[in-house]
């Protein structure tokens, strides 16, 4: 019920919150399309992001989900979250049918699937795109037919779809802000980046450097870990061998590997950052390493479904929206709530997005 | 009688694919009758044509006994080139289309030179050139984007009544490129070379030029596929072609093309491509869970290949079977 935390601050909605306490079920249902709670979840990507026109269709709605790649941890959890979310009572009452289509990373397949969705008369289509631009023309066709299209994670270029994502620049910035508070002056910060040339990598590092540039006393060493645990471990071990004054590690996805490298060579334990990998959080809490995790949540799919429902039922959302990030530091990490000692290290832990009213029990994600 | 059986054997691959396609489309229509509307048929055609073109290109090379692992990168390269330079005017569209086809042929010619004249194994050679072409695509378009005019997109992906323009494009590619080539001496040389390179060489067939021509044809088909993808997605994406490398091989093999060379048709790979392209859609429509889709897709493909292989099981003796597969 953490949606209440958001409402409490707004005295105008105090009454509604009180009503929510009395009839919890209906209040949460209301909160799915409640403008104030939507505004908390869907933050305009930039100040001049336009608002999308709302539809006024009577529910329940027929919603299709066109997924591209599947078979990695993140996507598997995401698909399970999608199936679980639409079955939650407050969501289910808005949905008459929900179907998942997988195309693999084949743009042609995804186009033909979306065309088949147009034929089937869906009210809304949720998309995790195989190409940032390749689906634009078929999405425009869908929108022309009155279908609401919401893209998340791998978003799309067309301005006719609603894009929902997490702000990667902000993520990089928050990691850097954590480190500059923790790392003593004149030390080196090891940046274990993602994949060279990838947009997300550039965004995250741009965000970080916007913070580091105000701290010229900190030296930066950059290596590429490819968002992969094994590669992270290797490049970090190499860096530890040549740099002996590392005072902090700015890591992203795969930082579990960087942490393993430090533990392996018994290097001094330094403050670290990473994405929400179970392995990273387990090692950080076990070794009491000051760390902060923020990560791309697989529950973004639920936020996208919520955006579709809200738009269909008459609410206007930003065309491009960022979901507020939740950072978690080592002392805040609770076992079996924030990380899961019984699950594999590769499990992505941030399966709920409370600031968007998305709460997914871990039993729905691990099957 | 045995002659008839032989002829049936030759066509068993395409035949099984045709049965597969009909079964899958019937299943699709049962769950989603609207798929038989003009829009639905165009969707199915558009989804299959890129792979069909890639499979045709792959087939030409397979028939010489080689293979082309760069076909996906060639598609990406042409796709990125077209989306970057096409512009809006009729002249620029025509020029870019011609240039795109030439780029495809040139990329194929480079493969041909490395394989036929450089004597590098086709697997290694085209694997390497695939990175070269992928690199050029990335340089052209570091990020997906660009634009394709609506007129060009509609010309290739629209439909006239029940007739999808993409099917017309495929038909044209067959009529203008495939049939003339395989009715000419070049076509017979390709088959002869693939069937038995040594005797082809001994009979005075210019084997190097034949091998090179096969790669150039593959590049040409890849270029048409890349142009079609550009029309379908109205943009360029340097990684868009990757899936077509292995899928084109799969479609060709499904359609009865021998990996050992010397045997293959045009209709088989096309049907194989249609089957491969539609199966996944159908599985989703029928409501099969995402996690089972790969498993069932693989199962259906094994079934089709198995049907085509029944002929082999009925061979009189295993020695004749071995002899056949060696030839």
Structure, explained:
Chain A: Keywords: Signal. Chain A: One of its GO terms (molecular function) is carbohydrate binding. Chain A: InterPro entries: Peripla_BP_I, SBP_2_dom. Chain A: This is Substrate-binding domain-containing protein. The complex is a heterodimer of chains A (367) and B (327). Chain A has helices spanning 3-8, 14-22, 24-33, 35-41, 73-85, 89-92, 107-119, 136-144, 168-182, 199-212, 229-242, 255-264, 278-286, 300-312, 362-365; strands at residues 43-44, 61-67, 95-102, 124-128, 148-152, 162-165, 188-193, 219-224, 246-251, 272-274, 291-293, 320-322, 328-329. Chain A is an alpha/beta fold and 367 residues long. In chain A, the strands form three sheets. A seven-stranded mixed β-sheet of chain A has the order 1-12-6-5-4-2-3, with helices on both faces. In chain A, strand 10 (272-274), helix 13 and strand 11 (291-293) form a beta-alpha-beta unit. In chain A, helix 5 (73-85) packs parallel to helix 14 (300-312) and helix 7 (107-119) runs parallel beside helix 8. The two termini of chain A are 25 Å apart. Chain B has one domain (2-326): Orthogonal Bundle (ABC transporter involved in vitamin B12 uptake, BtuC), CATH 1.10.3470. Chain B has helices spanning 2-31, 38-63, 71-85, 90-117, 122-140, 150-157, 165-183, 185-195, 197-202, 207-233, 242-254, 267-286, 290-313, 318-326, and strands spanning 159-160, 163-164. The A-B interface holds A 67, 70-71, 76, 79, 99-109, 111-113, 115-116, 118-120, 131-137, 157, 197, 199 and B 32, 34-35, 37, 39-40, 42-44, 46-47, 50-51, 138, 142-146, 153, 229, 232-237, 239-240, 242-243, 277, 280-281, 284-285, 287, 290-291, 293-294.
């Amino acid at each position: 019920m953490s949606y209440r935390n958001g409402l409490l601050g707004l005295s105008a909605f105090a009454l509604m919150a009180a009503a929510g306490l009395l009839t919890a079920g209906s209040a949460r249902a209301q909160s799915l399309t409640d403008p104030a709670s939507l505004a908390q979840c869907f933050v305009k990507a930039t100040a001049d992001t336009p608002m999308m026109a709302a539809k006024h269709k009577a529910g329940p709605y027929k919603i299709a989900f066109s997924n591209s790649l599947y078979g990695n941890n993140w996507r598997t959890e995401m698909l399970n979250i999608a199936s679980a979310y639409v079955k939650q009572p407050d969501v289910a009452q808005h949905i008459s049918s929900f179907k998942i289509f997988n195309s693999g990373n084949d743009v042609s397949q995804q186009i033909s699937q979306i065309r088949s969705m147009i034929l089937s008369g869906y009210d809304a289509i949720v998309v995790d795109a195989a190409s940032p631009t390749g689906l634009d023309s078929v999405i425009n066709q869908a929108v022309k037919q009155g279908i609401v299209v919401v893209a998340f994670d791998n978003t799309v270029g067309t301005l006719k779809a609603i894009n929902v994502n997490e702000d990667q620049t902000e993520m990089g910035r928050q990691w850097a802000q954590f480190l500059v508070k923790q790392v003593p002056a004149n030390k080196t910060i090891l940046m274990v980046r993602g994949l060279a040339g990838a947009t997300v990598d550039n965004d995250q590092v741009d965000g970080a450097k916007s913070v580091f540039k105000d701290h010229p006393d900190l030296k930066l060493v950059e290596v590429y870990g490819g968002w992969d645990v094994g590669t992270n471990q290797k490049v970090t071990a190499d860096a530890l061998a040549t740099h002996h004054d590392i005072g902090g590690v700015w890591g992203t996805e795969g930082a579990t590997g960087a942490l393993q490298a430090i533990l392996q060579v018994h290097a001094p334990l330094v403050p670290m950052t990473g994405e929400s990998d179970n392995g990273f959080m387990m090692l950080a809490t076990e070794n009491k390493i000051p760390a902060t995790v923020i990560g791309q949540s697989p529950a973004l799919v639920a936020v996208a479904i919520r955006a579709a429902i809200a738009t269909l039922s008459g609410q206007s959302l930003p065309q491009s929206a960022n979901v507020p990030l939740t950072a978690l530091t080592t002392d805040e990490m609770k076992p079996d709530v924030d990380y899961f000692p019984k699950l594999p290290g590769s499990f992505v832990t941030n399966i709920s997005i409370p600031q968007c009213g998305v709460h997914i029990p871990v039993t729905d994600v691990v099957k | 009688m045995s002659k008839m059986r032989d002829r049936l054997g030759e066509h068993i691959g395409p035949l099984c694919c045709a049965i597969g396609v009909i079964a899958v489309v019937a299943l699709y229509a049962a769950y989603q009758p609207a798929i038989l509307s003009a829009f639905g048929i165009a969707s199915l055609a558009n989804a299959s044509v890129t792979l069909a073109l890639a499979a045709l290109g792959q087939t030409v090379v397979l028939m010489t006994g080689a293979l082309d692992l760069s076909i996906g990168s060639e598609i990406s390269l042409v796709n990125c080139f077209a989306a970057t330079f096409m512009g809006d005017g009729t002249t620029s569209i025509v020029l870019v289309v011609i240039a795109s086809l030439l780029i495809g042929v040139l990329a194929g010619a480079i493969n041909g030179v490395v394989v036929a004249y450089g004597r590098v194994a086709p697997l290694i050679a085209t694997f390497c050139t695939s990175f070269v072409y992928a690199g050029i695509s990335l340089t052209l378009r570091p990020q997906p984007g660009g634009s394709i005019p609506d007129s060009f997109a509609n010309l290739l992906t629209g439909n006239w009544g029940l007739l999808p323009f993409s099917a017309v494009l495929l038909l044209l590619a067959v009529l203008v490129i495939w049939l003339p080539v395989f009715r000419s001496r070049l076509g017979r040389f390709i088959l002869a070379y693939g069937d038995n390179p040594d005797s082809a060489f001994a009979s005075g067939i210019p084997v190097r030029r034949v091998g090179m021509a096969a790669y150039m044809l593959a590049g040409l088909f890849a270029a048409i596929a890349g142009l079609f993808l550009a029309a379908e997605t109205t943009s360029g994406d340097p990684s868009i072609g990757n899936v077509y490398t292995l899928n084109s091989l799969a479609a060709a093999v499904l359609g009865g093309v021998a990996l050992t060379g010397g045997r293959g048709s045009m209709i088989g790979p096309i049907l194989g491509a249609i089957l491969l392209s539609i199966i996944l859609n159908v599985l989703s429509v029928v409501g099969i869970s995402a996690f089972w889709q790969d498993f069932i897709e693989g199962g259906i493909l094994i079934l089709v290949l198995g049907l085509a292989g029944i002929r082999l099981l009925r061979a009189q003796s295993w020695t004749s079977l071995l002899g056949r597969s060696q030839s």
